[in-house]
Amino acid sequence: MRRLLWHRSARWRHGAVRSVEAPISSAAGCIDLTGKQRTYAPRFSGSIGVAYAFALDNNMTLTHRVDYAHISRAWGVLFENNALGDHLDQWDVFNAQVSLANGPWQRIAYGANVTDEMPAQIPLNCRASSYFPGLPSTNRRRTACARLARLATPGKRVVVTNWENSMSTAKPKAKAARPKQRRTKAEQRADTVEQILNGAEELFGLRGPYGVTLKDVAQKVGVPTSLLHYYFADKDTLFDAVFARRAAITRELRMAALDRYEQECGGKPTVEGVLRVFLDTDLNLYSGNEGWRNFAALGAQASVARDWGTKLFDHHFDGVVLKLIGILRRALPECSEEDLFWCYQFTSGALCITLAQTGRIDTLSGGLCDSEDFDAAKQRMASFIAGGFIEVVRQRAAQKKKRSRR
């Protein structure tokens, strides 16, 4: 005699509708203060399972079960940028299982994700091992397994044995891959800040601080403006962070290079020698690096800005400039203090017009010279400026000698 047993279970979620049997909170209202939908908050999701149990002869039971789950579209990360794959398309999952129970033993065969369904897009953060609740990882492709288990009885040990068959769609690997380490929240925050600083630096280098808004930066980076306010109080704070990031690097590199030169010159510095250390150390940073080129353009703007530029240069570069002038004073003991500072003024002008990369020399030379060729500038600048220092000193000495003869 055969007996048919039937069982079903279902759970759905949609907007503010709640099931009486299994109440679930609404996802449609999951928005932040800016009105954006929260991450992994689909407007509709649900699952349903159906099982049929056949009572067979010899005290055996054969059970078939099918489960279906559906999750509607949702954002995977808070940036909500379709171009970067932040949006997850809707997806469906089917699972199937057949079990045969005979006394204390149960034989089970089941398939997970039998249709091999995956979301149309997976966020970039997921590919970097930052998983989100409910999002399938890449190893949850279609898989079939068999299991033999002894049901638990008082005083008995449960024995479970699994066999994995070859139906999995995942490609076999020669060696088990070590799981990727998930990035920490601190690392994720650092990456986000770095992207914001890079985008802001490019815009500030093109338009200056007064020609850029926080909204411009947000659009450039592809993040909500509210995220910029989370990391930076206002535009001035963002601009200061952009400038200070690379200013500290070039300042420390030049200071260290000048210290080494003082040790190596044996107390006998030369004008061209110290200028080459000061200028070349800085120019080396801008060759072939887009980020440093953007900072070079920003620095050139700051050098001619009477208000905000003067304050920035005083704060970040006075120490290394005074260090350079101190060594030049020993290289040219006959040079007056006034002439030393005027010659540095001309040095700063030559350096900043080069950093500006205006393209003016390209037009004047008919394409013979390239304003972005920092290597070509480096080959000539120190020698040219050193000649200016020496000539000023020579002229001053000649004038002094002429006055003494009168």
Mean pLDDT score: 79
Q: Give the DSSP E fraction (strand runs of 2 or more residues).
A: 15-25%
Q: Spell out the CATH superfamily of the largest domain.
A: Tetracycline Repressor, domain 2
Structural class: alpha+beta
- The CATH topology of the largest domain turns out to be Tetracycline Repressor, domain 2
- Could you name the ranges where pLDDT drops below 50 across 5 or more consecutive residues? 1-11, 13-29, 121-139, 154-170
Compute the gyration radius: what is it?
35 Å
Describe the 3D structure.
It is a single chain. The chain is elongated and about 135 Å long. α2 (185-207) crosses α3, α2 packs across α7 and α7 crosses α8. It folds into 2 domains: 3-164, no CATH class; 200-405, Orthogonal Bundle (Tetracycline Repressor, domain 2). The longest helix has 32 residues, at 374-405. It has helices at 124-127, 185-207, 214-221, 225-231, 235-264, 271-283, 290-303, 308-331, 337-356, 360-364, 374-405; strands at 3-14, 44-55, 60-71, 74-75, 87-88, 91-102, 105-112, 143-150, 160-164. Helix content is 44%, strand content 18%. The protein has 11 helices and 9 strands. It starts with a strand and ends with a helix. Strands 1-2-3-6-7-8-9 form a 7-stranded antiparallel β-sheet, with no helix packed on it. With 406 residues, it is of the alpha+beta class.
